[in-house]
Amino acid sequence: MGVIDWIAGVGTKRVHVLVIETPGASLLRMRVQAAIAARGWVEATSPADADALLVCGNPGSPLSELIGAVWEQIPSPRHRAMLTEPGTLLEFLDAIPIALQNERSQRADAHDRPQHVSMSPADGAPDMTRVDTSDTPGMHHSEAEAEPPLPDDSGHDVSMHTDTMYEGTPQKNSGSNPAMDMNMSGPAGIPLAEGDQDRDGLEMDVTHLTLGPILAAWPADLVLHCTLHGDVVADARVERLPSGVATTEQPAVASQLCDAAARLLSVIGWDPVARQVDRLRNDIVSGVPPQDVSRRLNRLITQIRRSRTLRWSLAGIHAPGARPARDRLLGWLQSAQESLMADEKRPFHIPVGELALSEVDIRLAVLGQELSTVRLIIASLATGTSPRVVLGHE
Fold first, then answer.
1. pLDDT tens digits for 200-223?
2. How far, in Å, CA of 187 to CA of 5, rounded?
C-alpha cells in the first residue's frame, strides 16, 4: 500500500456528509442521520466541510439547480448520491469511502468540474442559487466575512455557530421573471440594494432575498421570498415546494418532536443540548427501547426548563395565534416523552391554533422582524412537522 492509499484510508475513516432533505423525505433524512452517527461519521454543516453529498428523496426541478450549485462547492475528493429507499441506505454509505479512495475517478472529476459556479437559476426555479458558506447566518452577502453576528435590538443572541446559510441573490423587483431581472452591476456581480421610501417618507435600502430550503434547520418544503428595508422584513411571500416522495410512511411522533426541538436549539446556538436531542431522535429512529429514551429525555427536559439563558434567548419569539417559542419547545419534548410511553397508534390531542400553519400565518409571523430573527421564528413554528403531531402542550 502506497502513501497515497494510506492517507486516503485514514481520511475516510471519519467521513463528513452533507445531508440534503427533499420535501416529504423527513423520515429518510432522520434514518440517514442516525446511520451517520452510528458509524462515527460527521454531518457536515457546509459544502466546504463536506466529503460527500447525500440527497434524501427525489428533488424536483426547483431544487435541482440549487443542489447542483452546492455540489460544485464541495472540494475534491468528493462523492454524490441520491437515496430514495431506506433499504439501500447501508449500501450507499458503504460506497462513500470506496468512491473517495478511487484515485482515477477523483482525478477525472477534478479535471472535469467547472472553474466557476453558475449563478443563473433555471426558469421557474426559486432564486436560491447564491450559496453563502459563511458562519454568519442572517447577514447580507456583503457582510459574509464580517465578525460573528451581534444580538438584535430585542436582545436575542441569534448567533448560529455551526449553521450554514444558503440565501438567494438579492434582485430588483419589477414583477417579471427573477432570473431575467438581476442587476449584476454590484461588487463581484452581486446586485446592489435599491432605494425606496417607507410609509414615513424616509429613504430606505430595499433588497429582495429568498431563503430556503437547504438552509440548515429550515423546513425542506418552505421557500420565503423577502423584501427587506435595511435588515427588516417589510414584505414576504411564502412558497411551498411539492413533495417528491411517494410514500405514506411517517416518522414516529416522538422522533418528529425531538427533531423539531433539536432544530430550534441549534438555531438558538445551544449546540451541546441540540446534539443531545439529536441523539435521542436517532435512538428513537433506530429502535432503542422507549423506556431508556424516556428517562434520558426527562433529565433533558428538566435542564432545559431551568435554563435562564434559554428563557432569555426565546423571549418575545412567537407567531400570531401561537404560543411563545419556549412553551412550544418544552411542549414538544414533553409530548415526545408521553408518546414514548404510550401507544403510538393512539390519536393525540392537537390544541386549536397549533396545527401546521398556513402560508398567511407564516407571512404574518415574519413581517416586521429583523432578518436575523426570521430563522428563530421559522424554527419555532416547526412548519415541516406532520399536522398529526402535537405542536403545543396544555
1. 566 667 889 999 888 888 999 899
2. 43
**Closest to 151 measured CA to CA, from 268, 36, 56, 70:** 268
Kindly report which listed range (51-55, 158-162, 182-186) carries the lowest average pLDDT score: 158-162
**Residues 6 or more apart in contact with residue 252 via CB below 8 angstroms:** 284, 285, 339, 344
Instruction: Report which of 220, 340, 246 is spatially closest to residue 289, judged by C-alpha positions.
Output: 340
Q: Does the reported pTM lie above 0.85? A: no
String of b and e for 371-391 (b: at least 16 CB within 10 Å)? bbbbbbbbbbbbbbbeeebbb
Domains and CATH numbers, the chain: 3-112 (3.40.50), 142-182+191-394 (no CATH)
Contact status, residue 202 vs residue 145, Cβ threshold 8 Å: no
Radius of gyration from C-alpha coordinates of the chain: 21
> For residue range 86-113, what is the model confidence (pLDDT) as tens digits?
888 999 999 999 999 998 999 999 888 8
Bond before 289 cis per omega within 30 degrees: no
C-alpha distances out from residue 372 to 12, 130, 138, 376, Å:
36, 18, 4, 8
Residue closest to 190 by CA, chosen among 209, 215, 203, 214? 209
Q: What share of the chain is helix, strand, coil (3-state, %, to 5)?
A: 40, 15, 45
Do 31 and 89 meet the contact criterion of CB atoms below 8 Å apart?
yes
C-alpha cell at 170: 438579492
Strands laid side by side in the 42-43 sheet: 42-43, 16-21, 52-56, 79-83
- From the list 163, 157, 173, 160, the residue with the least C-alpha distance to 132 is 163
Is residue 189 left, alpha or beta, with left meaning phi > 0 and alpha meaning psi from -120 to 50? left
- Residues 313, 323: contact at Cβ < 8 Å? no
β-pairing, 42-43 vs 203-211, is unpaired
Parallel/antiparallel/unpaired status of strands 203-211 and 222-229 = antiparallel
- Give 4's pLDDT tier (boundaries 50, 70, 90): low
Cell of 11: 481520511
211: nearest Cα among 385, 41, 375, 31: 375
Contact indicator for 370, 152 with CB cutoff of 8 Å: yes
